[in-house]
């Protein structure tokens, strides 16, 4: 698409109960950002869980058969974290993002932008887009989430959507609060044919995870959801287990937790920081993509499709333009890491 979209770079102040977040993703540092399995940001794989991988006994192939309302994903599935936050978050703490998206500094309310994102993710063989979700009234999500879902169906796309429950990363929501949020999602969105399901259950990712979190989410979800929690120290020993675990630590290029997930990131440079926590390296990215595919992990995740404030996006940009028009990072995903 040739049309470019420009918007005011003002950063919205998001109020989350007593917490104020300045238009950017949840921020952690050090070991807490990586669970407890953090290594240097220059390694190809910085966190590998070496326990037996249950997926190795299966016959997994890339999921491309999820069609029709109510159908379930075939694992392994490729997912990407997605942010419907714009134009509110084109800056972080007053500093404008470094990179230049091909679509310009767009609005998440623009139909043409949403349509192009769906096309981009299809090209990158992404099965599931994991949309950041702060609550019922934050970031215009009451209109932006329906737009994402409806446009996906209107375009006849096989892409599915789920939610990244962000509040857990900044507190311990009560079981009653979780139930209320899950009930809202269930009644508002889950019947939509663009919602991701595994074994018939709607999928939800949670930014946060430990044994206490696992217990609260088990009680709140009542077995009605397929729940993926963010890994934490000792997660495998929790007496109550979610359906799966994932990592979100984009200052490491690749992290594997055997039997659960393989997560890759292209780079990490927040708009308000002087230097990158993870420098971009396309050769490394191609290798990470190839390793992710070869891992056969049930969840193969990309951090992120379009979190521009943290500089983790793989969405097309002038800095990594390619002849395909989709950009070099999506090109690597399109070929499963084969040059």
Structural class: alpha/beta
Number of strands: 15
Low-pLDDT runs of 5+ residues are 1-68
What would you give as the CATH superfamily?
Glycosidases
Name the average pLDDT.
Answer: 84
The CATH first-level class comes to: Alpha Beta
Instruction: Sum up the overall morphology in one term.
Output: globular
As for the CATH topology, it is TIM Barrel
Q: Please state roughly what percent of the residues sit in beta strands, choosing from under 5%, 5-15%, 15-25%, 25-35%, 35-45% or over 45%.
A: 15-25%
Characterise the protein shown here.
The protein has 339 residues and is α/β, with parallel strands linked by helices. The protein has one domain (75-334): Glycosidases (TIM Barrel, Alpha-Beta Barrel), CATH 3.20.20. The chain contains 7 helices and 15 strands. The strands form 3 sheets. Strands 3, 4, 7, 8, 9, 10, 11, 12, 13, 14 and 15 form an 11-stranded mixed sheet that branches. Strand 5 (91-92) and strand 6 (95-96) form a beta hairpin. The two termini are 25 Å apart. The model is unreliable at 1-68 (pLDDT under 50).
